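Progress note, sequence design subtask.
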C-alpha cells in the first residue's frame, strides 16, 4: 500500500487498525475548505450517522489516494458512519465530511444518508454518542463517558 501497510495489517473485523492521531491541522488536510464539493453547492452537511461504503472504483485507485482519503476508503470496505470513521482514524468530523464528499463526487465512495424520520431509535443515538466520545480532543484525551 502507498502508506507502507500491507493487506495483512487489518483488525479481526477486516478494517485497518487505528493509528496515532495526525499532527496535521484539519484546514491543511481539507485545503481550508469547510464543505466538500457537493456540500458547497447544496449548503447542507452530511449528518454524522451518514453511512459510507467504498465503491469498486474507490478500491481500484486506493493506492493512488492521499493518506487520509486512502484511510477513509480502506475503512469503508464495510459500511461505516462518518462518526465511526472519524473516531477510528482520529480525524475531525468535518475533515471526514469534506473528504467523504470529495470521494463521493469522484465516485470512490457511496453515501447513504439515513431517513431522518427513522433515526429516532435510541440505540442509533447511543451509537452516535459513543462514536463522538471516542474522538479525542485536541490534546488527544478521550471525553468522559456519561
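Output:
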Amino acid at each position: 500500500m502507498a502508506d507502507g501497510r500491507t493487506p495483512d495489517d487489518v483488525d479481526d473485523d477486516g478494517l485497518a487498525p487505528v493509528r496515532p492521531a495526525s499532527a496535521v491541522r484539519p484546514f491543511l488536510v481539507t485545503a481550508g475548505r469547510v464543505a466538500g464539493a457537493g456540500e458547497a453547492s447544496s449548503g447542507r452537511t452530511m449528518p454524522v450517522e451518514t453511512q459510507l461504503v467504498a465503491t469498486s472504483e474507490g478500491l481500484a485507485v486506493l493506492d493512488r489516494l492521499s493518506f487520509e482519503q486512502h484511510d477513509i476508503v480502506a475503512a469503508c470496505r464495510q459500511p461505516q458512519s462518518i462518526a465511526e470513521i472519524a473516531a477510528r482514524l482520529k480525524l475531525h468530523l468535518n475533515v471526514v465530511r469534506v473528504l467523504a464528499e470529495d470521494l463521493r463526487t469522484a465516485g470512490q465512495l457511496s453515501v447513504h444518508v439515513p431517513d431522518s424520520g427513522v433515526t429516532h431509535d435510541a440505540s442509533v443515538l447511543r451509537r452516535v454518542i459513543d462514536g463522538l466520545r471516542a474522538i479525542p480532543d485536541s490534546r488527544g484525551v478521550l471525553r468522559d463517558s456519561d
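The first strand starts at residue 51 and ends at 54. Work on this subtask will continue into the next period as scheduled.
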